[in-house]
Design brief:
The structure is a homotetramer of 384-residue chains.
Chain A (H helix, E strand, L loop, with lengths): L2 E7 L2 H5 L2 H9 L3 E8 L11 H6 L4 E5 L8 H22 L3 E5 L3 H12 L4 E4 L7 H13 L2 E3 L3 H9 L13 H11 L7 H5 L2 E2 L9 E4 L10 H15 L3 E4 L7 H13 L6 E4 L4 H9 L3 E4 L7 H5 L3 E4 L12 E4 L3 H14 L13 H11 L11
Parallel strand pairs in A: 1-2, 1-4, 2-3, 4-5, 5-6, 8-9, 8-11, 9-10, 11-12, 12-13
Antiparallel strand pairs in A: 7-10
């Protein structure tokens, strides 16, 4: 009897961060993958990623819409509730033996709550990290609901233990995103034109003399300032005079503010070297990042994948506050001047050395193996 | 500007355990109470407690149905999700400054998730305790979502700190349920007839020669065994030959099994001295418990309020496993023989000494004072 | 390519009323049945009928909990809303070519709304009838949402046309419940003991000298009076001095009132010849009805199936007001005296002649054939 | 005791079409208005109209998010379900005596279903009309759920009667939108600059030499073609060489297709004389329409308000198929050539004569008066 492993993929970054684990689960003789595609992964507006998922050879077991329009604090809460309701029905019909949930998004919490109440063991990937905002609360709440823990770093694993989890259930696997980074680092050539392959809007510049990548998400607890925050980045990136490969933010409270800030900047005829993308296949995206002169914004990619890739990162604001980082990261506030200074410093340095902080590139197979062999007991208690 | 304090009351025990805090909030010059009545508190079948709430002088700010029929694991998950969705709308309309959530039920989690995503500070009463079942996970998950912590015991407070909460946010207040126990211990006479005042079904025995109180809830992670578990209790209580004041279980996965076990026992003409109640006003209930020869089952009342009251308690099964207890508690498995032996031992001992393990009877005013004066910051991070 | 036909079964009576159509769909070479089991069909408390469904050889494509606890007017509305949300996800995953919805319950409306918005053609069985209460509104609203109409009677079909539906979409098929009645009328012997086969509570009387069947549901728009209404029936049935085979009511606003009325009557030691059942397989139930001296209450079985069976029916109150009826029905108000008088008159008459008012026993195959051959166009407009 | 009248406002057009009735209800001595703001009325992306509502002097009794992201057929169904669930809670807390629901959107159906199940009388404004698409089904389903009918036209009223509604409940009041049109026709000067007052994006042309207004919504049952349909309009409007005041479509399945079609057209540097608005106050909008040379698209404004205003309308496609229309309307398919020909014909004709087809401008006060005086009985039955 193969163990049935249900996983929910909901957004561009969470797919990239679990993809090698999904592949390893799919290929494992003792496991059967049940892939649920939900939320913004189904939405055109955020780059319907279900097509990439299917192209990668995964079969979709169920699809479900759970995102409430509004992109504000109220609708984030409601989407979580709706996710729990719908996932409970889906789990009841799929009858998984274990549910894998990734990181700290509202779908992560929704999966964990639904499974925990249904006595389905929960395996949590990327727990124990320390950051800012609501993600911090959600991540640790999921740890307390989960049965198995697959943290990315040694520190994260220790933090999970200190929170009272049983050492027999905590396995430091590294992050599956680093598995992809390893593949890219071995074979880094940018063999495709991002403009031709992914369309998007804006200028199709010559990339051969260098470019930057920008990815800045709204900060949930400060969503009204989203628009003014993005303006500092817009100014600084334009001042660099390099082509910018700019990615639209996740569906989240505050993303309307960011989108509007960008649109108004462009209406004024500014940002002439910017090109905007919704989405890319994870490997293409990492190649684009690898070959860039820097990644700018507040995505954890700059800290996580780029620690392995060595790409310089300018990390803006406190979204990643508390997260462990390597030497490739310079932290700055929402200030165009400080962003520019950080870029100058990075451009002088060039690529940084490979760092195994977030993993050695074998996380996916390790996670699959633990899912196949670990004891899936459902009773748990704080260890102190 | 008074701080608006929203609280959700959903069930008989959670009302009793927060009532003195609600009164203290209502009376505090700097606080305004927003009472939300939900879930089984609105259901006749579980003793519609909204009438007691209004009789106690509270005004209901909103009422909402969130319990899915089925009383199984799937519907517990779905009720949680529905609770989040509905509470988000209610919070959006009431605009509270802080949300108080109690203990570890699914409504507790629903309140905490909705408020956390909406950037409304969450105050958690009765966190940090250690028990069995899904409650354990939910309680600690709520701790990780919460901003202020009002644990009942010193140990619980220390556990919350070890989980990484900021010491400036943790206040050991004692449990508000002990405030009621203190009132009852000062004025313990059973001045009412439970049969006349509360109806219910079964025999109305003479209570002057002693009686027992029974309250046994389903154990969520083992719900199919609910019926066989209740049978051990039914046998042992009948064997004691004392009148039994028996309370129907909470709405929860497994409660149908218990109800059916009881009905079948009675169809056989057994349990002649049993009388069944849905509900009682908290003070009446505690007086009934105070004057009983023992409380039997798996309710935390036997451990919590009875530590202060000194009433002997027979605690069955692992529902309260890990919870701190005083000398008044004898733990037994689901065995009619062991329940009987424990009763014999308790009857020989009589009332135990008052123990301040769960508080000194001043929790409600302390909680209100902290709600009025504490810093309600919304950013938080694990302390290690 | 076989047409995929999704149908939702939610309750004891709706299953009996669609069963022969389900069988005919399953057996039709051009159709594929997608059976969704929902709502009270999954609840133990109302006689979990999913076991009968599977025993009848149907495979369940999806199961979903949609009933909110409370059994009042608010929760009926909310269950409808929840049903729409959940069924939309299920339809999105099953991708049916047509959705069959039966009669006038809230699940009927939920199916029709979900399918209509999703551009999935809706086939409505048992539309066009005229009754009292909220069912009347729901039934006709479903007619206006539906694409194909399979009314049971000639009058119902004419009513659908007068409401502006296209004659090319209206097919008077008879009611599938009559298909079962026909089987029973051909082979009516009561070859089983209802007490042994179905358990239940109450006295197991000797049935050889006659008995009555009772089935009385709450009347939604008058739910607070449910309890007093059931008392008239309890008095009259006891006065008949015949054994009574009594069925618990549907999950609906008001059913708590009925259940409580019955329990209190029994607590007083009355109704000694009553036996209470949750549920029976449809054929067994109709055999029990066929062999009874009368059916009492407000179920449409007394009017519909019994027109064919010839069993005398005492129809109480206005739940069936407006519904076409044969000579086997005597209508009475909620009065024990008038119920007794009607029974006396029926007992004097005995069985009535077979009447084809609600069909000739071939409805199921007719419906399947129309589903296979009808044009499933999705544009429609009122004909005037 | 004043009757409490709950009304849900959810979108730009439904607010404009009920505004004078809301004012008349608010001013009526025997009525109390309970205004619920929901769905896209709360969304920035569709021109958060709650600010206009409050500026117009209305107090918001409750606000609720019910729109699922996705803007496809599945999410329309789910938003309806979510609307019913949430509105049931809101009605339970507000306890209205009657619920007013307008036209044929999913919120209309959600309000009607929630209220009907809760035994709250439903008053339906703008029922009985005949159009294309899902709106047709929803409108007539609402008629079958409603207790009071306030159709706009004589024909619509007759259609409602033919559907079996009781003549004592049907009142031809005219459409409240015509009340606004009457005010505008009396005082038509365009005293504001739309660009200054409402911002928006695109060119701010000189309007003194004429301009057109464009408003084209997705057609639900054909949503994948939305994008190609809008292209015909874009081409034709550009060819007219007149400034175009263009309004973004409603939140609906298919609106993403329209938005994308528009954005791509503009990315190509076309539509140089177009200016895009999200929203306008109803009176400003009608003044803009009154002074335009034509209104183009598929909004019912062209048919309804413009019959009174006399503004030439080019009605594209079948969204308004079946709706009664005056001489000011030319119907065309999705063809840029035919749109251009219709414009030529209209420009040659100029303004048409005032037509009272949709009302005489007194609908709001009439509706309020009927709400105050009508018998609000809750039992109903089809009349045949």
């Amino acid at each position: 009897m193969r163990r049935k492993v249900a996983t929910i993929v909901t957004a561009r970054p969470s797919y990239a961060r679990i993809k090698t684990a999904l592949q390893a689960i799919q290929q494992h003789p003792d496991l059967e993958l049940q892939l649920i595609v939900a939320a913004s992964a189904l939405l055109d507006r955020y780059g319907n990623i279900v097509q990439y998922i299917e192209k990668d050879g995964f079969e979709v077991a169920a699809r479900v819409y759970i995102v409430l329009e509004g992109e504000n604090l109220v609708t984030s809460a409601k989407s979580t509730g709706l996710g729990i309701m719908e996932l409970a029905t889906i789990f009841d019909n799929l009858q998984p033996d274990v549910v894998v949930t990734v990181a700290d998004r509202y779908e992560t919490l929704a999966s964990a709550v639904a499974a925990a109440y249904m006595n389905i063991p929960v395996a949590h990937v990327q727990g124990g990290e320390k950051t800012g905002s609501i993600d911090e609360r959600v991540r640790h709440a999921v740890t307390k609901l989960a049965d198995l823990h697959f943290p990315a770093t040694k520190n994260a694993g220790e933090r999970i233990l200190r929170m009272g989890e049983d050492p027999k259930t905590v396995f430091v696997t590294g992050c599956p995103s680093i598995d992809l980074a390893k593949m890219v680092a071995k074979d880094p050539d940018l063999t495709f034109s991002p403009f031709e392959k992914y369309g998007g809007v804006g200028t199709s510049s010559d990339l051969s003399n260098g470019y930057v990548v920008v990815m800045q998400h709204p900060v949930t607890t400060q969503y009204e300032e989203s628009r003014s925050q993005i303006e500092a980045t817009l100014e600084a990136v334009e001042a660099s005079d390099l082509p910018a490969m700019w990615f639209w933010p996740n569906v989240d409270a505050g993303s309307d503010g960011i989108s509007r800030g960008i649109r108004i900047f462009r209406e004024k005829g500014r940002g002439k070297k910017f090109h905007f993308f919704k989405n890319m296949e994870p490997i293409d995206f990492l190649r684009l990042v690898y070959n860039s002169k820097a990644i700018i914004g507040n995505s954890s990619v700059g800290i996580r994948e780029c620690s392995f890739l060595g790409t310089p990162a300018v990390n803006i604001g406190d979204r990643q506050a508390g997260r462990e980082r390597g030497k490739n990261v310079i932290d700055v506030p929402y200030s165009s001047k400080e962003i520019m200074m950080a870029l100058t410093s990075h451009f002088a340095n060039g690529r940084y050395a490979q760092d195994h902080l977030y993993g050695d590139g074998m996380a996916g197979p390790r996670i699959a193996e633990h899912l196949a062999s670990a004891s899936l007991r459902v009773a748990k208690q704080v260890t102190y």
